[in-house]
Amino acid sequence: MLKRRYTILILIGYLIALGSSIYLYQKGISHPVVTDKGRLLPITMKSIQPAEGSKQLQDIVRKANVTNDKISIAGMQHSQGGQTLYPNAILIDMKSYYKILAFDPKRKTITVQSGVTWNDIQRYINPYGLSIKVMQSQNIFTIGGSLSVNVHGRDIRNDALIDTVDSFRLINAEGNIINVSRHENAPLFYSVIGGYGLFGIILDVTLKLTDDELYKTNTRVIDYKEYQVYFQKEVEDNPAVKMHLARISVAPKSFLKEMYVTDYALAENQQELSQYRKLKGETVAIPKFFLGVSRYSDWGKDLFWDVQKKYMKVTEGKLISRNNVMRSDSNFMEFDSSSRTEVLQEYFVPVTEFTNYIDSLRDVLEKEKDFNLLNITVRFVDKNDEAVMSYAKADMFALVLLINQGKSKKDIQDTQKVVRKMIDVTLDHHGSYYLPYYSYPSKKQLTEAYPRTDEFFSTKKLYDPQERFVNLFYEEYGK
């Protein structure tokens, strides 16, 4: 008991320390060392150039063509597989490029520079009763970065982000500004979205918006074997349900067997929306603490799962606006350690394969006693094959895994072995995996998960034959 109390006291102090900012790179010095959010890839860059304007960005690209410098592009740098990094390259930091350029509430469209965050857009459109169609579960990311990884979210009635993009402007490898849409430079439209910054600098984007709505929260705990049928009957076939989120237990007592689900259905009286329209702030201090406890012990994982289920019941029947369902400005998964880090993996599996897939995944993970899996969130993604590197080959459940691991070479190798086993299981069940994360997958796994991989890299070389825009993801898989 004393040992447990001592551990908890250490964890409290540790979590308080996380309030300080983590700087991912050093500014103002020659050849700064830069890393992404996973902090497994510290890379020495030639320089960091904050985006100041379209002409300045054009000049950077044109000068690089003369000096033969490589260019990488960064937003919030949450992609963990080196998508924003390349040795001795010029890093263009887009976060300072954040103006809202045009807004048409009647047509429900907005045009923003690529350094604008989802939070910026939410705050701008919320007074007009409008909402974003598709975004990540957190609103801290830049629009350019989100396009580059073709995100998806909790909305089950809209597809991946590409479905909501009207057009964008791009600085290409020659330093020219071009318009890109489904009708203009179309091959680039389908390659740049989900293209990981390999085709140029996204300047600004026009997005389609939708109406804000009032939802009622419905929650329940179910067995994983019930989930497929539950989702198809109670969620997918119920037009009133607009958003959906689930979690499956990683606690030892109920490992990959128990789930809880949260559905967001249209409230009966939409006129009450005005009472719930104010955008919410930070609300996750307690869950954040228990996530910290779960990092270090099995009993902590069991405790965290019990807390999640109790927290979920508190939300049952509550009313909430669409904008607030999509909103989280919390750094819920922030973690700082000299020897360890936390990385994400995301696997997509057809809805009809879910139960058998979980059984196969459990068979693998129960043998990996040192693999520290902290959380699995489950979402739904409609089939969408617009993007060349589309992950949704069918109607899919997306499983987002949070993994705590060491930073040493051996730790990385150990995690890679488990990740490759999980990907093999996913592929065996006709699934795929998400590309923004650490480059654990093999090239063979990439081409099996993404059958248009050769087309993607051929298009890259067609539009950027000198390989001006590069990153470690391209170095690993595109060469």
Structural write-up:
There is one protein chain. This protein is an alpha+beta fold and 479 residues long. It has two domains: 95-211, Uridine Diphospho-n-acetylenolpyruvylglucosamine Reductase, domain 3, CATH 3.30.465.10; 214-442, Alpha-Beta Plaits, CATH 3.30.70. It is built from 14 helices and 19 strands. The strands form four sheets. Strands 15-12-14-13-17-18-16-19 form an eight-stranded antiparallel beta sheet, sandwiched between helices. Strands 6, 7, 8, 9, 10 and 11 form a six-stranded antiparallel beta sheet that branches. It has a three-stranded parallel beta sheet with strand order 3-5-4, covered by helices on one side. Helix 10 runs antiparallel to helix 11 (409-428). The chain is globular. The termini are far apart. The relative contact order is 0.14. The model is unreliable at 1-25 (pLDDT under 50).
